[in-house]
Amino acid sequence: MNHEWQGPLQPGKKPPEEEIKTPEKQEGVENAAAVKDSESKRKHIIAIAKTKIGVLFDSYDTGQERIDDLKEQIDRLDFLENKEIMKTELEKCINIKTRKKFKDQVVKIIKPFIDLKIERPEIFVREAGTSQEFVKLNELLSYEIKSDSIHIHMLPEEKVENLAIKFKAGLQKLAEILNENKNIETIQATSWIIAKHPKFIERFGFVIDSEINEEIRREHFSGDKSKISQAHMLRNDFLEKYLVK
């Protein structure tokens, strides 16, 4: 019988064995992935919290006003335990003068809130259905961060003096926030202004999308009969245009 020559034998070298994943090993892999995902969520939530705290810091001239605002926000969270302890700790931040130190200290104090947002996200989904949480940029614009996008909201239709100046100033402030949140890829805007003055919005670099559908109208603009449209801009374009260097 003829055998095809396979080359010289190499004593001591065993063929590779396929790794067999035991239930214990598989569970370890899944646990490691869950921990990594949890830490990623924590970093994201902390980044958003610091951004909002920084905006709050800039919105007031005194430490007492800042702390009163934070305490009021905590009081609205009925599901949060140990609120009084958190409010007492926040009082110790009244005399902090620097923005960074204020942000860092407040984030430490609201750690139970951050933990809850990671461990029981369904609570916050339920709360979001009953109350919108927008952060004010100026008298014209406010915003909220959702996953990998920032949503801009504008005042209901009314006369606004120096509209273009205030609009640009709000976008420049938003660019600072966007620059701190590296995971955000899109800036979205929803307003009557987009529907009524699309050329005005395009002048600022936005791409007009379409009028809102009935689902969005029911969820966010119930009772508002005016025409409302949406527009967007990508992260790099927005930063290039509005980040003051």
What would you say about this model in short?
Helices cover 53% and strands 13% of the residues. By secondary structure, the chain is of the alpha+beta class. The chain has two domains: 26-131; 132-245, Aminopeptidase (3-Layer(aba) Sandwich).
Indicate how many domains the architecture comprises: 2
| Backbone shape | globular
CATH architecture of the largest domain: 3-Layer(aba) Sandwich
CATH fourth-tier homologous superfamily of the largest domain: Gcn5-related N-acetyltransferase (GNAT)
- Give me the side-by-side strand order of the main sheet: 1-2-3-4-6-5
CATH class assignment of the largest domain = Alpha Beta
Under CATH, the topology of the largest domain can be stated as: Aminopeptidase
Biggest sheet, in brief?
6 strands, mixed
Measure the end-to-end span.
81 Å
How much beta, percentage-wise? 5-15%
The tally of beta strands, per DSSP, is 6
Tally of alpha and pi helices: 11
**Residue ranges: pLDDT <50 for 5 or more in a row?**
125-132
Compute the average pLDDT. Answer: 78
Structural class based on helices, strands and sheet pairing: alpha+beta
Order of helices and strands: HHHHHHEEEHEHHEHEH
* Helicity range: 40-55%
What would you report as the Rg, rounded to the nearest angstrom? Answer: 26 Å
